[in-house]
Design brief:
The structure is a homodimer. By secondary structure, chain A is of the alpha+beta class. Helix content of chain A is 27%, strand content 28%. In chain A, strand 5 and strand 6 form a beta hairpin.
Chain lengths: 573, 573
């Protein structure tokens, strides 16, 4: 493409309302423009990258045996009512009423539509496994859209849905998608982790998120310093001790004593006012129990309750509901700042770390009083033990190798075993090999196409602008003729090289604009073209061109004759 | 692709609610499925064709220098209020309200959004001409969606918008798009006509429709039997006489006479009861005049008023509004069945054919009475003459070559000179070469991507199913191994040929399903794959394969060695 025929709408200034670097750079590089809150137009340069992302995703989905379909973006309310999500989904669902007063939504996802299609079109286990995907515009009416296309309202997703006759089949379909996702994000040139995620009541390793690592990421990615283990914060298991080592509780050293703590209603106050080490304190959290009434969940003072882990316990009501102060007072006779296990008359579950504590302090279930020097079994029976907390930096890795570290990530993909949730609600069956109707086992697999573009920038940029991986750069190479208006040799060489590179299938931009070289270089670096070749008379005197990779500090002179081979090598790298 | 891994959802029966053949065949071939009224899912086989249409359109738009963008499908009401279309567009516009009670629509078209983008991004004539296009899902809330994807509510359009600094530039941009459209529809393998269409007050040859010729088409396509001239019915000029021949009015033969016609309130009754030839009768139609009051428009009894031509006259109010009976009685003193030019006290415009009539009959502007034997100038002055009627079969062609014929067409594309309509309403300017702000000249160019698929089927089918043009067939070739479970040679040959054809870039389906050959052949013909190659032991004994083109009656034996060349030749044809 010729730059003179391309809308290059670069901006010098950082737009005021863009908070994160990818949003700033996408605006500054002329990739996108805001239409209104959460709605963006993709300009030619941005769309080129978006299409390259789409193509890689499509190729790998096809390779994995998934079939592309295209479902309507507008979906009738009836199907969402059948699955129960019309009421559950809340305001994120953009609801629409047509001229005949019928209700629809702008689909944020397509489980209902594909399940409806599959229950009508597939009738036998012989037609399984089947996996259908689409690359399509979706809408989520975010309360506060922000960060450009990272959290926009209208966005492009690849969503796929697999169908199997049994759980073993679902597991195979899931693994095929997991492998396809690994190939996709590798081909995109991103630094990413596949992290285990929670999948509620399905259990097993039934959900993974694909996280692009970037400091600005909203998610915490937990990973082992010594192995491939990775999980999100909801899922990462907190071990009581390194795998293989027996967790050990120190023997009691102190006496149990009741202490007046009139001003210590928080952990911080307790530590500050009474000199208790924070890892000798307890948080006693009361939530609604599954059987009615309350249940107490205990984590160490320096730990955080993991709400997903708590919710997954049979004893705890779903969704997790914290008790109000009134409910606590009614049950215990004390406020939330003075709770503890000693003398507590209600079901209790303690975190694994809590079970290993000795000589610790906790509320006495009387306002303004704590027990110090508590020891399990001696002062109070050890209740049920479970994994209740978020892991922290330095925890032992659940796979027994090394310790855990925490990084920031941007979720760009998610694979999930839905099980029979939708086939149950919508009665989607096929005949199995014994001729009986079997509810389908379903998986769903999403990739945020538009979000990938932003995530790639968060991970790959410098002060001058974007630094694209080759695979998704809007152009792989830019050719810059110097003083083209004066030098016929430069003009002709540029045109010849432009033709040669195009003929070799290299995606090349010829910067033929009537602008100063400094302006061109700045634009090209802002836009992030990975390879730059300058054609000037000085170099041509020696048959040479000036090459600079986007991450290079200096130019390299290369023989004009070898340009194609030179670039080909760099583009494969 | 292997058929065993493809959703082949063919139907034997014609779906009851599908009225036209393309809708029936798209359902029967498993290309689409209805989600609800006017909303369709594209199944894998249908989507393959859709994507091939998209690719051809994209390639030719790029070749023509247009730049691809992607604007949001959801558009804020403010822009439509600025252009005035929020109120004008009516119920076809699907209106949406978000969680913050702000108004939007699901875009049926993007003139406002692109004009807003361009007024912000382009500042100088040096950035022009510019042409931006997108291929995108749109929505029109049709009162009565029908004919499958031919008139669905959600559909895919290619819409392009050109911007120029002056009208001459617009004319050039328009011609470039016209040429691109000619290439697109030619490459798609369709039998089509580019027909002149009306473009209201812009004038000139500023609008063309691209019509796929098919008997089921909703539009009338007017074309010359001897030249390239083609126009739609609104636009086609009705000449008074063949070009170059002087139109001549026969001399009067009859006396003017007032006749009692108590029961003749229609042309048909007049002809039947009084023996008047229909081409000696007049229709006198009264409409609102631009200056207020009424104006009479006269066409011959056997002709139809062309409302667009009438509306384009300066004397006639816009939009064209027929007078009510009450208005007519108040102005004339007689009812609509007794009107005529003799003694009529109001402005009158007559069609060119009417100006050539003599000895004709018309109402006397008195209920129950007509004048017969009327002659212009002798009995009443000849009023202003204009082209007011639809052409009819056999009319002389406006280009002077041959006569006009009428065919049926399906509109699949439209190019249109908008002029300054939107740049005026939305104040979109650039600086011209004298440094002054100049309103942009705009053109818009649409192609109905989803509709093309249906139109191609309307034009190309037989009793067995669809007959795809090579360029947009879901597969170019199908390989059918016979008795593959018994013959290792057949299996191996099929696999080898499948690999060879794929390696040659031929889009081939290997029908490896465990089904009877008759079922496979019926599916393949229904789906419309243009080339079929059967691999059987009998043929292989002679090193031969059995070939059948979709339109062929008989098989042809071809040497297995020459298959690639043989197909290559047929695929180019």
């Amino acid at each position: 493409m010729r730059a003179s025929q391309l809308l290059i709408a670069t901006l010098k200034e950082v737009p005021a309302d863009a908070e994160i670097v990818s949003h700033q750079l996408m605006l500054r590089a002329g990739m996108i423009r805001r239409l209104t809150s959460g709605l963006y137009s993709w300009l030619p340069i941005g769309l080129r990258t978006l299409r390259k992302v789409e193509r890689i995703v499509r190729e790998e989905m096809d390779r994995a045996g998934a079939q592309e379909v295209l479902m309507p973006s507008v979906q009738p309310a009836e199907l969402w009512q059948e699955s129960g999500r019309w009421d559950q989904y809340g305001d994120l669902l953009l609801r629409i009423r047509d001229r005949h007063e019928r209700d629809y939504c702008y689909g944020p996802t397509h489980e209902e539509v594909i399940t409806d299609l599959v229950r009508k079109e597939l009738s036998s286990y012989k037609q399984l496994p089947s996996n259908f995907y689409q690359i399509q515009t979706k809408f989520r009416d975010e309360t506060r859209p922000r960060f450009g296309v990272m959290r926009s309202r209208e966005f492009i997703m690849k969503d796929a849905y697999s169908f199997d006759v049994d759980q073993a089949g679902l597991q195979r379909s899931y693994e095929a998608m997991y492998d396809a996702y690994m190939r996709i994000f590798t081909r995109l040139g991103l630094n990413f982790r596949a992290v285990e995620a929670d999948n509620g009541d399905i259990g097993g390793s039934g959900s993974h998120e694909f996280q692009v690592l970037a400091d600005s990421g909203e998610d915490a990615v937990i990973f082992s310093t010594s192995s491939d283990y990775a999980a999100n914060i909801e899922k990462a298991e907190a071990l009581p001790a390194p795998l293989g080592e027996a967790p050990e509780r120190p023997a009691p050293q102190e006496e149990l004593r009741l202490v007046d703590t009139p001003d210590a209603r928080t952990i911080a106050a307790l530590v500050e006012q009474h000199g208790l080490p924070i890892d000798k304190t307890l948080k006693t959290l009361m939530v609604h129990a599954a059987q009615g009434g309350l249940i107490a969940l205990l984590v160490r003072g320096d730990h955080e309750l993991n709400e997903i882990k708590a919710e997954n316990l049979a004893e705890v009501a779903t969704p997790l509901t914290m008790a109000t102060e009134a409910e606590i007072r009614a049950a215990v006779g004390a406020g939330p700042g003075s709770l503890g296990p000693v003398g507590l008359d209600m079901p209790v579950i303690v975190d694994r770390s809590v079970a290993l504590m000795s000589d610790f302090g906790a509320g006495a279930n009387v306002d303004g009083k704590h027990y110090f020097g508590i020891n399990w079994e001696r002062d109070v029976a050890l209740p049920k033990v479970a994994d209740l907390r978020n892991v922290v930096e330095g925890d032992p890795s659940p796979d027994g190798q090394g310790t855990l570290s925490i990084a920031r990530g941007i979720e760009v993909g998610h694979v999930f075993q839905l099980g029979q949730k939708y086939s149950q609600a919508m009665n989607a069956t096929v005949l199995d090999d014994s001729g009986k109707a079997a509810k389908l086992w379903m998986g769903c697999y999403g990739i945020g196409i538009t979000r990938i573009v932003a995530a790639a920038i968060e991970q790959n940029h410098d002060d001058a602008g974007i630094i694209w991986p080759n695979a998704i750069a809007p152009f792989e190479v830019v050719l810059v003729p110097m003083n083209a208006h004066k030098s016929q040799r430069v003009r002709e060489t540029a045109e010849r090289l432009y033709g040669e590179l195009k003929a070799q299938g290299i995606d090349v931009l010829l910067d033929d604009r009537d602008t100063r070289p400094g302006v061109k270089f700045a634009d090209q670096e802002l836009i992030g073209i990975p390879h730059r070749v300058v054609i000037g008379d000085r170099g041509l005197d020696n048959g040479e061109l000036e090459y600079k990779g986007r991450r290079d500090n200096d130019n390299t002179m290369i023989a004009a004759d070898s340009l194609v081979d030179f670039l080909r090598e760099r583009l494969q790298g």
